[in-house]
Amino acid sequence: MNDRPTPLLRAEGLVKTHHGEGAPAHAVRGVDLRVARGEFVAVTGPSGAGKSTLLHLLGGLQRPDEGSYWLDGERTDGYSEARWAVERRKRIGIVFQFFNLVSNLSVADNVELPALLAGLSPKQARAEREELLAELGLAGKERSMPGELSGGEQQRVALARALVNRPPLLLADEPAGSLDSKGTREVMRLLSRFHGRGQTIVLVTHDARLASAADRVISFFDGRIADDAELDGAPSRRAGTSGVLELRD
Ligand SMILES: Nc1ncnc2c1ncn2[C@@H]1O[C@H](COP(=O)(O)OP(=O)(O)OP(=O)(O)O)[C@@H](O)[C@H]1O
């Protein structure tokens, strides 16, 4: 019997080709990947290597042409769009380079919306939002609109929105890509803090400094994993799993 714990993510033979205007882009050419609960994995590599496409496959935002993907032991191959939307709400928080906040909703509403959609009562959603915004140094900004905030603040709101349903998995696609060095350090600090409490994170980044916050770095090249390495000190960094924000799953 295999008594290894079920990985939170398991991908086998993922292939994705984009058919745009020019020649087909073979973005992901056969990826096998396992990510255990509590791991913080950075995916790095040159522009066009296929990193974002891989992240989109892991978040169910795009479908593979070939291969299979299991989320927490459950095969996702047959999931409809609607099913993926439900699964994402419960299990996957996603942050993007350009935050993707709803510009005509306040900070509070941006963060509460996914909690309400997931079925929390307005009171519970408000409590979760208040806790996360305080945690992320945004108390007092609830009534602000996204356009009134700095890039770093908007990314923190996006992080709060991604984590409001306490998903076991956080996917981050160049989360500091449009931030200055102060904003980058802030994102790094926050990702490390959530990881220290047991949050599983898959981070796509060009930024070697940001990748150094992870405990495992995957180098992606030409649609394939070229290298997959644990960083020194990873086990100790991965040790803490308790904290104010208990993960609910
Ligand atoms: N929706 C799309 N339609 C057509 N081609 C696409 C699409 N998305 C990505 N591609 C192509 O697929 C390849 C991989 O793109 P992808 O964005 O996944 O790479 P990346 O490593 O994330 O790059 P970057 O670091 O520049 O964001 C590229 O050749 C890109 O042009």
From TrEMBL:
PROSITE patterns: ABC_TRANSPORTER_1, ABC_TRANSPORTER_2. The keyword Cell inner membrane does not apply. Keywords: ATP-binding, Nucleotide-binding, Transport. Residues 9-247 form the ABC transporter domain. GO terms for molecular function: ATP binding. It comes from the Bacteria. Belongs to the ABC transporter superfamily. This is ABC transporter ATP-binding protein. It comes from Streptomyces carpinensis.
